[in-house]
Specification:
Blueprint: E1 2-11, E2 15-22, E3 25-33, H1 42-53, E4 61-68, E5 71-73, E6 78-81, E7 88-91, H2 92-100, E8 103-108, H3 109-120, E9 129-133, E10 141-144, E11 147-148, H4 179-182, H5 184-195, H6 201-209, H7 213-237, E12 241-245, H8 253-264, E13 274-277, H9 284-294
Parallel strand pairs: 1-4, 4-8, 9-12, 12-13
Antiparallel strand pairs: 1-2, 2-3, 5-6, 6-7, 9-10, 10-11
Helix pairs in contact: 1-2, 3-9, 5-6, 5-7, 6-7, 7-8
């Protein structure tokens, strides 16, 4: 066993990402599609990912961190509920540790991503940060004074804040949640419904660039909904930097510029706020999970 080596695994609805970390150096990365029936095979799947990443006995890690979406109890690592992956009360550290025979910790994918961005990425040197990945779902993580806020399992679940009472149905079953309007998945879905054309959020961003009026409506509604929910958090927490992650951030200024304008129009005059793209891309959660594993005692 390599006492300096840890592995972080980020389990998502579409892909599972894993990294090996020694000190401050990411040694290797691996991404595989999330298999069907993941909830019933969770420990087995994580074992396979760790084995593929650390494929020699000399690379056996001393600890593993596993992060997941949805409602998570950070104190215990219990995955309470995931609207997109369909599990309830999944004791991640217990089942993975029992399967691998390695000390394991669990956590929330977005809060882990913020830890990674603060240590290695777009939030280095800034201790008052809101991290918002825009992917299949939509959640957030808040850092105040260098400390990640984690209270109840609902901490950071911006995606299930009601913004449009008569809006589209969310994965949680309620209509009009932010996630059903402003996540990357929702933007693609709303574009297809409104235009009758195929395409995902990346296609919508490109259509916005060329002035497509239908795309602009879908995009503007998503940006305004985001700003409506995020602005009060910025004002209350004294946030100085918003880090936008997830696949949607690839839109660059098409997303970041109007989002910053929409936020500043809602905030008190004199507030200074950066809105930037995440630096670690899809690897933030896995790197954050590895950082959590490093915090486990040897």
């Amino acid at each position: 066993m390599d006492q300096d080596l840890v592995v972080g695994v980020d389990v998502g609805g579409t892909r599972i990402k894993a990294v090996s970390l020694r000190g401050e150096e990411v040694l290797d990365r691996l991404a595989v599609p999330s298999p069907a029936g993941l909830a019933s095979r969770f420990a087995e799947v994580v074992e396979g990912v760790v084995a593929a990443l650390c494929d020699t006995p000399s690379l056996r890690p001393r600890a593993v961190g596993v992060v997941v979406p949805g409602l998570v109890d950070d104190a215990t690592g219990l995955a309470i509920w995931s609207a997109n992956l369909g599990w309830r009360d999944l004791d991640v550290p217990q089942i993975v540790s029992a399967r691998l025979g390695i000390r394991t910790t669990g956590g929330h994918d977005v809060r882990a991503g913020l830890v990674a961005e603060h240590r290695f990425g777009a939030a280095v040197g800034v201790d008052d940060v809101l991290f918002v990945p825009l992917g299949t779902g939509l959640a957030s993580a808040l850092m105040v004074g260098g400390h990640v806020v984690s209270s109840t399992p609902w901490t950071g679940e911006l995606g299930h804040v009601l913004v449009t009472p008569d809006g589209p149905t969310c994965g949680c079953g309620r209509a009009g949640c932010l996630e059903a309007i402003a996540s990357a998945g929702a933007i693609g879905r709303r574009w297809r419904e409104a235009s009758g054309q195929e395409g995902d959020a990346e296609v919508v961003a490109e259509r916005v660039r060329v002035g497509d009026p239908v795309a602009r409506v879908v995009w503007t509604e998503a940006v305004d909904a985001l700003a409506m929910v995020i602005a009060p958090i910025v004002a209350a927490a004294g946030t100085r930097r918003i880090v936008i992650g997830g696949g949607l951030v690839n839109a660059g200024p098409v997303l970041l510029d109007p989002l910053r304008e929409a936020l500043m129009s809602r905030l008190p005059e004199g507030v200074e706020l950066d809105v930037v793209a995440a630096a670690l891309g899809e690897w933030a959660g896995a790197i954050g999970a590895a950082t959590l594993a490093q915090s486990l005692p040897t």
